[in-house]
């Protein structure tokens, strides 16, 4: 196997600058949204006393969960020593940091008192999984930064495996923590379950890889670098496995819940008559985010590289759409369903007891979420332009030790 | 040559650092000779504050930070723990005879805080004038 | 390039001067820090005296609400709470705060219905306290669950965690708050059991209103004191807690639920 050369992006074309300016514009709009929400109070958003976490949290949790999953590719290369994944590791680390920063910024800017961030970073209630998550998120940034440095500094490469192992373990704990934000809530029927943790881990694998694939495809295409069929095939098949894992845990969660009479209400709500939540669950999460990507990945013949590349790209986009749908159902659907203070009784009050809560996401919430996505994208663009994250070539002949020159189109 | 230039720079830096103090006077409220405006701080009601002016100027923020925990966590609400007493003494009347809120620059806390450009966090939650003062500034 | 005759001399002098440098550095650091440490130790208030004042864990405040005396159409407790704490609605029921509300409960099998006041239940093991990342949501020594608005960052996690939907988020800027009930935009709030009244040995506003003009259904007192009226009544008559199955042991109990 040849030595891999990593180079910075050329980054001097019109497209590059146009993209960068576009991302900066969206980031500024997101910042403006945050100021607007903070100045007027959350009354200008769609979030209420019934649905307290809304669109910004859907975006933030997606970004954070995808961040931990994006690191997977590097882990497979370092920890599990798969040679084809090794050249992909640096981009994986960069993407993980970028996505996490984007998610955290959205989360912090949505706080009721974002000026009190310093309080959140100095006063901790260690019984709160939220407090632990603050440590896990910041620690993740440091661990991945160290891991990246050890990968990129050739003299330190021999320590990269230890760092990779630490990063892998850390991200599992981090994603467990994120899942437990919901799993620890005894009050809400949609959440109170240990399965939230492994479900979130499966989701992180799936979304993280989908985002990684798209970024890799765009970066290589944009900079004219070769991306071999072997990489696409391996990542595509891996995506299929992760999508199956998410479908499995989702099915398990709902089947177990359906078995309990006390949860009949919430299951009926999500699966049958919840309106938008039901539509997003079946159409968005299961079909667009699950079955269709599986069809694309497994039914397209891998030997037709161009077609397979298109299928995998489309599958990645669909997984991301399905991911947003899934998080919308989890975060917002779980809150829309009323709390059951008096089991078996019908209740009503002036404080919206007993009624399904209405929630309509507002523009500031969307723009704030998109601002976080733009920030993540900008960090990736900047990183690729300034430092050597991307291999000069990912052609199959260059990176696959077992590659045989066959009659491939690539 | 090198040491002369170094000494020159040092002299300029020292002059810049020490200049503001050449007009320092015992009573901070009076206009100093240089004409730099000082905040006009309204006199509070009653004889004295809970501590003397110099101490309060330097330490009122620490007092507030400490006392508020005593009130919130232990329920101790009387002097010296009471923000309500601070506000009722340091009330400032507006043009219409009613006590001003913190949105008016004449508010007691704002006279200094505006001058020092230090944000006040208290009055997002706490009322900035005594409760009955909605009708009249006089207690 | 090696100057063998010079090297040993330089090394020796480097070693000793480095050692003495570190020594003097340590001394300087010690001299700088020692007065601060000493003053800190002197300046700390003696905790013994402070700890005995104020709220104490020998008391546990609670309420007993007798629903047979609670009228379906009466909401004096709700009005009193709003007046006492300065809760002003803005005509936006989805985001307006409500610390106590009347819940109408109908049994779909039998058609029987009743109404009851629901507020923060002041649990012994509050989930809102467990989940607050900054510790702003806390339980006072005497059992009252409160929000320390100085530390609240407005993350609303406690609102997700509360099984009783007790908490409200302040969605808009407020003015002229009640002096005894500070509340502000961007923080979370809930029934304080009128802690400012309790600290002055008075009753919560809802209890006072209920006994003055309402049905006289609400009783407030010290659950830890076996001689208090409330303790005697809960020992005599059956009373329930809402969602007792969650094991939170709320301080608010209901008769004839």
Describe what you observe in this structure.
The complex is a heterotrimer of chains A (410), B (139) and C (257). With 410 residues, chain A is mainly α. Chain A is globular, with a radius of gyration of 22 Å. A two-stranded antiparallel sheet of chain A has the order 1-3. In chain A, 68% of the residues lie in helices and 2% in strands. The radius of gyration of chain B is 20 Å and the shape is elongated. The relative contact order of chain B is 0.11. By secondary structure, chain C is an alpha+beta fold. The radius of gyration of chain C is 29 Å and the shape is elongated.
Strand content of chain B: under 5%
Rg of chain B, rounded, reads 20 Å
- Runs of chain B in which pLDDT lies below 50 for 5 or more consecutive residues are 133-139
Assembly state of the chains shown: heterotrimer
The main β sheet of chain C shows up as: 3 strands, mixed
Whole-number radius of gyration of chain C? 29 Å
What gap, in angstroms, lies between the N and C termini of chain C? Answer: 96 Å
Q: Helices, strands, pairings?
A:
The complex is a heterotrimer of chains A (410), B (139) and C (257).
Chain A: E1 6-7, H1 14-40, H2 55-70, H3 72-78, H4 89-109, H5 117-122, H6 129-152, H7 160-183, H8 196-222, H9 229-259, H10 264-273, H11 276-299, H12 305-336, E2 346-349, H13 363-386, E3 390-391, H14 396-399
Antiparallel strand pairs in A: 1-3
Chain B: H1 2-18, H2 53-74, H3 83-89, H4 108-116
Chain C: H1 7-43, H2 47-52, E1 61-66, H3 76-85, E2 100-106, E3 113-119, H4 127-131, E4 137-139, E5 145-147, H5 157-161, E6 168-169, E7 188-189, H6 195-198, H7 205-212, E8 218-222, H8 229-236, E9 252-255
Parallel strand pairs in C: 1-9
Antiparallel strand pairs in C: 1-8, 2-3, 4-5, 6-7
Helix pairs in contact in C: 3-7
């Amino acid at each position: 196997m040849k030595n891999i050369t990593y180079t910075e992006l050329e980054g001097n074309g019109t497209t590059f600058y146009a993209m960068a300016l576009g991302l900066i514009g969206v980031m500024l709009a997101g910042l403006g949204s945050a100021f607007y929400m903070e100045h007027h109070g959350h009354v200008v958003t769609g979030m209420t006393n019934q649905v307290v976490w809304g669109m910004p949290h859907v975006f933030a949790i997606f970004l954070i969960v995808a961040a931990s999953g994006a690191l997977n590719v590097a882990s497979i290369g370092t920890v599990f020593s798969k040679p084809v994944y090794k050249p992909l590791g640096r981009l994986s680390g960069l993407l993980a940091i970028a996505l996490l920063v984007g998610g955290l910024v959205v989360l912090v800017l949505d706080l009721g008192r974002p000026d009190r961030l310093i309080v959140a970073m100095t006063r901790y209630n260690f019984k709160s999984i939220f407090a632990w998550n603050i440590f896990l998120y910041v620690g993740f940034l440091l661990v991945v930064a160290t891991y990246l440095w050890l990968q990129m500094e050739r003299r330190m490469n021999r320590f990269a495996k230890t760092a990779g192992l630490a990063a892998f373990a850390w991200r599992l704990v981090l994603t467990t923590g994120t899942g437990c934000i919901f799993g620890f809530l005894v009050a809400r029927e949609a959440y109170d379950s240990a399965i939230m943790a492994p479900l979130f881990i499966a989701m992180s694998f799936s979304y993280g890889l989908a985002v990684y694939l798209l970024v890799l495809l765009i970066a290589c295409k944009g900079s004219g670098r070769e991306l071999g069929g072997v990489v696409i095939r391996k990542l595509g098949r891996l995506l299929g496995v992760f999508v199956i894992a998410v479908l499995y845990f989702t099915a398990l969660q709902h089947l177990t819940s359906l078995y309990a009479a006390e949860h009949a209400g919430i299951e009926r709500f999500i699966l049958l008559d919840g309106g938008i939540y039901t539509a997003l669950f079946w159409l968005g999460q299961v079909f667009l985010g699950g079955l269709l990507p599986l069809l694309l990945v497994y039914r397209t013949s891998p030997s037709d590289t161009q077609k397979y590349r298109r299928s995998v790209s489309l599958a990645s986009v669909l997984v991301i759409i399905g991911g947003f749908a899934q998080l919308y159902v989890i975060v917002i659907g779980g809150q829309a369903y009323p709390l059951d203070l008096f089991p078996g009784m019908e209740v009503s009050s002036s404080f919206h007891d007993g009624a399904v809560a209405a929630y309509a996401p507002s523009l500031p919430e969307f723009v704030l979420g998109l601002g976080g996505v733009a920030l993540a994208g900008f960090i990736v663009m900047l990183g690729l332009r300034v430092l050597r994250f991307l291999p000069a070539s990912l052609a199959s002949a260059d990176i696959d030790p077992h590659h045989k020159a066959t009659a491939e189109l690539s | 040559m090198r040491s002369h230039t170094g000494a020159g720079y040092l002299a300029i830096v020292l002059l810049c650092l020490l200049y503001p103090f050449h007009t320092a006077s015992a009573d901070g409220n009076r206009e100093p000779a240089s004409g730099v405006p000082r905040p006009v701080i309204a006199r509070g009601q009653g004889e004295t504050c809970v501590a003397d002016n110099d101490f309060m100027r330097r330490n009122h923020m620490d007092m507030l930070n400490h006392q508020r925990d005593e009130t919130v966590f232990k329920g101790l609400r009387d002097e010296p723990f009471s923000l309500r007493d601070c506000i009722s003494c340091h009330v400032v009347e507006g043009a219409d005879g009613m006590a001003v809120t913190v949105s008016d620059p004449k508010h007691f806390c704002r006279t200094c805080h505006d001058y020092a450009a230090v944000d006040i966090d208290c009055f997002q939650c706490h009322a900035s004038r005594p409760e009955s003062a909605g009708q009249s500034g006089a207690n | 390039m090696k100057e063998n005759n010079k090297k040993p001399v330089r090394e020796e002098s480097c070693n000793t001067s480095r050692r003495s440098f570190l020594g003097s550095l340590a001394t300087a650091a010690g001299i700088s820090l020692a007065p601060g440490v000493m003053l800190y130790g002197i300046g700390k208030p003696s905790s013994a005296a402070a700890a005995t004042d104020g709220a104490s864990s020998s008391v546990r405040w609670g309420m007993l609400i007798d629903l047979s005396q609670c009228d379906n159409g009466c909401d004096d407790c709700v009005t009193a709470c709003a007046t006492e704490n300065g809760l002003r609605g803005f005509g936006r029921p989805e985001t307006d705060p409500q610390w106590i509300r009347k819940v109408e409960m109908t049994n779909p099998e039998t058609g029987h219905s009743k109404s009851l006041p629901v507020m923060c239940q002041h649990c012994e093991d509050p989930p809102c306290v467990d989940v607050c990342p900054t510790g702003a949501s806390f339980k006072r020594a005497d059992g009252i669950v409160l929000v320390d608005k100085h530390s609240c960052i407005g993350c609303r996690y406690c609102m997700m965690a509360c099984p009783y939907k007790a908490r409200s988020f302040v969605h808009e800027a407020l003015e002229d708050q009640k002096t005894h009930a500070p509340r502000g935009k961007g923080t979370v709030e809930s029934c304080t059991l009128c802690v400012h009244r309790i600290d002055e040995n008075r009753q919560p506003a809802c209890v006072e209103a209920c006994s003055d003009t309402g049905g006289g259904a609400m009783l407030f007192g010290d659950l830890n004191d076996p001689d208090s009226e409330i303790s005697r009544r809960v020992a005599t008559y059956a009373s329930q807690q809402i969602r007792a199955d969650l094991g939170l042991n709320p301080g608010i109990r209901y008769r004839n639920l």
